[in-house]
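Following up on my earlier thread - several people asked me to post the actual chain instead of describing it. Fair enough. Here it is, all 273 residues.
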Amino acid sequence: MIQIIAAVQAITTKMRQDHIAAFAAQAAFFTVLSTFPFIMFILYITRFLPFNQADILMACRDYLPSQYSTFVVSIIEMVYLQQSTALLSFNGLSLLWSASKGVNALINGLNSVYEIDEDRNFILMRLLSSLYIAFFTLAIVFGLLVLVFGNTFFLYLYQWFPILERLNTLFVIGRVFVSFTIFLLVFLAIYKFLPSQKIRFSEVIPGAVFSTIGWIASSFAFSLYYGRFTTILDMYGNLTGLLLALLWLYVCMNILFIGAEINYHFYHSAQYY
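Reply from S.P.:
Thanks for posting it. Predicted structure:
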């Protein structure tokens, strides 16, 4: 118990020294800024998949908290109404710029945690940002496949094999497990490849697990918060979804950096002993 308290104190102290809150705020801001062009990019990718607008809207309404789904749905509907090459090109450039700034904030924050200086050149940094965006896009698309067509596939099987109704709970657990796995893989990739230091996968597992659980728990907590304080939040009008998304991402980015601090603490504790 004493060791746990000492570890928490050490991690908390180092978080203040590394200015984690500032890096989290910067990453959250540029992530929100890239939301609109990122959604456009995702919708462009889904044109080559067995998706249509109704499928995507259904997934947003069913699986996103209501305060975020309304905001995202409005963007999706506007995108489908205004499909132009010029707009797509502009949003592609906006996505690359804002997302690269967000990735740079993550890189700088992780380098601060590991107490290292960035020694990679500009081109490599932009390439890393692009790969991160591509990886995150694939994770989102795969998640849509699981959420949208997973349920459709189960209903199709149920029509032919009614006995499968008994496995409905198991199917729901399976989808939660897949979502957990996607989050875990994303965090493993972030902790492994973004810092300017060679890190083994075994060294980033504790922080990745913590961040995965933390992001899922914080999303659930924000949903409860919105449900209980709807009247107070309504005073912000149409900005409610945007403000909550910014606050939620700020909390999530802090969780991500706490996970990095946990990895750093475990790594140096293992070296010490």
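DSSP finds eleven helices and no strands in the chain. That should answer part of your original question.
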